[in-house]
Amino acid sequence: MKRLALVVALGGCVAEGHASLETRTPIVYQEPPQEQIDTPATPNPGHVWARGRWDWREGQWVWIGGHWEAAREREVWEHGRWEKQGHAWHWIDGRWVATAAPTAPVEAPPASSGAMYPTSAPPPPRSEAPGAAPAASIWIGGRWDWKNGTWAWVDGHWERQRASETWVPGRWELQGNYYVWVEGRWDKR
Predict the structure, then answer these.
(1) Which of 53, 26, 23, 25 is nearest to 38 (CA)?
(2) Which of 33-42, 52-61, 100-109 shows the lowest mean pLDDT across its residues?
(3) Taking the CA of residue 111 as centre, how many other CA atoms within 13 Å lie in the half-sphere pointing to its CB?
(4) Could you give the CA distance from residue 14 to residue 2 in angstroms, rounded to a whole number?
(5) How do residues 123-177 score in pLDDT, each as one tens digit?
(6) What total of structural domains would you count in the chain?
(7) 56 - beta bridge partners?
(8) 65 pLDDT exceeds 50?
(9) CB under 8 Å to 143, separation ≥6 — which residues?
(10) What residues make up the domain containing 161?
(11) Using 50, 70 and 90 to split pLDDT, how confident is the model at 25?
């Protein structure tokens, strides 16, 4: 009983009735529901939208709405995500990632751009059936791209796995009142 109380007090995880003191990262053995779109109605100058997420609480999935994060110079917000590792789902917290150039939030697209930038979130991702994996490869899921003022689907592809690196998927990020694509990248483990 003391061990379980300590886990709860430390923000530990409960995964289908199993507690762990080794990690504070939530681990769940049930796939999270499809992500909801929770775009704010109005922009918040000087801030970046940290989108909502599903959270595992008392044996069920609960939606936690997004929130504004104060923008940081030379950093971009990387959204948190549920990641499958073996048979379990692990929560990876959102974080600020350094960039080479200043990233002050953009309040509006340039006047000459027309429909160059989307002002609404992309549709939910499509389900893909990539087929058999080539040796030492990982599937990079498809994504929605903004082309000629409309959303167009770009199919996923297989990419060779890199030693000691993990793929961080790209994402559409709300900056000011429109969405900007942040490319996926390989991160050191």
Answers:
(1) 53
(2) 100-109
(3) 0
(4) 15
(5) 888 888 888 888 888 888 899 988 888 888 989 889 888 888 888 888 888 877 7
(6) 1
(7) 61
(8) yes
(9) 122, 125, 153, 154, 156, 170
(10) 122-189
(11) low
Nearest Cα to 71, choosing from 176, 180, 177, 170?
Answer: 176
Q: Is 36 domain-assigned?
A: no
- Rounded to whole angstroms, how far apart are CA atoms 101 and 74? 6
Whether 26 is in a domain gets the answer no
Token couple for 126: 């499509």
**Domain contains 178:** yes
Q: Is the pTM of the predicted complex or chain greater than 0.85?
A: no
- Residues 167 and 90: their CA atoms lie apart, in Å, by 15
DSSP-based three-state secondary structure for 6: helix
Distance, in Å, from the CA atom of 162 to the CA atom of 132, rounded to the nearest integer, reads: 19
Query: Considering the chain, what percentage of its residues have pLDDT values greater than 70?
Result: 76
What does the block give as tokens for 124? 């939910």
Q: What is the CA radius of gyration of the chain?
A: 19
Is the pLDDT higher at 148 or at 107?
A: 148
- Report the SS3 class of residue 122: coil
How is residue 73 written in tokens? Answer: 């110079």
Whole-number Cα distances in Å, 151 to 110, 124, 133, 139, 158? 20, 11, 28, 22, 23
**Any domain includes 109:** no
